[in-house]
Amino acid sequence: MDNNVFQELIQEFHENKLAHAFLLETNDKDKSYQLILEFLKRINCPEKYEDGCSKCNLCHLISSKALPSLITVYPDGINIKKEQILSLKKAFQTKPVFSKYNMYIIMDAEKLNASSANTMLKFIEEPEEHIIGFFVADNKENVIDTIKSRCQIFANFYVKNGEEEFSNEQFEKAIQYILEVETAHDAALLYNKDVLSLEIKDKNTCVLFFKTMLFIYQNIYYSMLGTEELKELFSSLQFLTKKKESNIFKRIQIILKILDDLNYNLNISLVLDRFVLEVGDIE
Ligand SMILES: [Zn+2]
Prior knowledge:
Layout: H1 4-14, E1 21-26, H2 29-44, H3 57-63, E2 70-73, H4 82-91, E3 102-106, H5 114-125, E4 131-137, H6 145-148, E5 152-156, H7 168-183, H8 185-199, H9 203-225, H10 245-261, H11 268-280
Helix pairs in contact: 1-2, 2-3, 4-5, 7-8, 7-9, 8-11, 9-10, 10-11
Zinc ion (ZN) binds next to α3.
């Protein structure tokens, strides 16, 4: 549970400032779901919670999804239906017996339509102390506004093969490149050819380079959502925080796609040019 975003929530929980509804944007819903369960254990555990608490019955029930006060809603067909939300409401009319909270997790929140979202609103608008909920989506822009506007929003992106620690030198190289791509757009293709292609000669270096950029764009995005501070090291990229959130999100998606594609053998100079061109298509 070394995840920054959730650490922030745990902090808010201890300070009694925890919100009641959260929208989590992620490229890996299953992993995010597990993280949410860990978080819910932490705020409910009657023992002193340690990672992977298996001592107490409550944590065990949360893990095995056998706790009546924890309900996960998946789309039924192409939508999340009004009836599903109605039965959630019904289940949560009484206070929880074993846990501190009644908890719901709405998976694929973009599948809430106007009528199911409407039914959902009462939970969010008149929050009761003992109810907490998560909406999980690929892209928050696809979640209906009435829900989105009432949630505390945060994001969590995953790269295959885990996350690395990056050196300052790697960061500096990536920052320099981002500045080229974001400000000197036409020259960036030349920069690829004249500078970068000499430094990035093999696939592993290329993957590491894109992971470093991903880390930087994520920090920028999280700082726009208000869940992280922009790192001082990245202050020369502050101007990017003035762009639309959804456009920074698109840059993250481009990098995630490139990292995925790099699992296959690709021509590195083509990958670099593709990055410049695709970012160039976004404001
Ligand atoms: Zn426990």
